[in-house]
Amino acid sequence: MKALYFAIMALITFSCAANPNNTKLPCEDASNSLELEQCIAQKKDESEHRLTNELRLLQEQIQMAYAAEAELGNTLIDQVEKTQLAWSDFKAQSCQLEAFEIEQGTSAYETAINNCESRMNQTRIKALSQILN
Known about the structure:
The protein is an all-alpha fold and 133 residues long. It is built from four helices and no strands.
């Protein structure tokens, strides 16, 4: 199990450090597994905050774009909310699948889940930002 833990931590470290543009990444300075775990958890929290903001911004844009047809705008907002709930479930299930071979309750498991959720949140933020653009 320890070998799997170290393999996961190495994979996460390299995924955080892979950087073709040679710019500094948030977890690049982590010098041990605890710092890496904390950094990835912080990245997940930040991505969730940005995702919430992107959803709020999208709702505001819909309200403005459909001001003359408020009922249609509300229908679109309802659809965005339903889709977001479905996507949240998909994200949770996908990340559990990605971390399947790691023992639940361990820091490696939580770090893998956080890394997956952060990555998926970033993808979702990009998708949401393109809906009315």
